[in-house]
UniProtKB/TrEMBL annotation:
The protein's name: Thioredoxin
Keyword Coiled coil attributed: no
A Pfam family recorded for this sequence: Thioredoxin
PANTHER family for the chain: GEO12009P1 (PTHR45663)
Residue spans crossing the bilayer: none
Cysteine pairings via disulfide bonds: C38-C41
Domain Thioredoxin: 1-112
Domain of life of the organism encoding this protein: Archaea
A GO CC annotation given for this chain: cytoplasm
Gene Ontology molecular functions: protein-disulfide reductase activity
Keywords: Disulfide bond, Electron transport, Redox-active center, Transport
Amino acid sequence: MATRITETDSVISLRDDDIELIVGETDVTLVEFYTEWCGTCQRMKPMLETIAADTDAAVATIDIESHLEIAIEFGAQSTPTFVLFVDGQPVEQLKGGQSEQSLRELIATYSN
């Protein structure tokens, strides 16, 4: 039985087999590729929670050390790397720490 993603107000933690489901079920999805030991990634967590709580976009994270193949597939060779998916397709990629405003503007550019 497939899980359908409708609305969420928190960051979704992904595994390899989840990413296609999440990005396929939501119009706009921001995915952060991270590592546990990345200080910048740790500092991004509260910001991502805030964005997930008050935008229509789904916000998800995936640990590149545990899911290296999917990270390579989407070009996430450093952390953090953000990939924005629209209608299931990657449309933008940002590398390194980002401001909340820059991520919100990116999401707003592609949101209806």
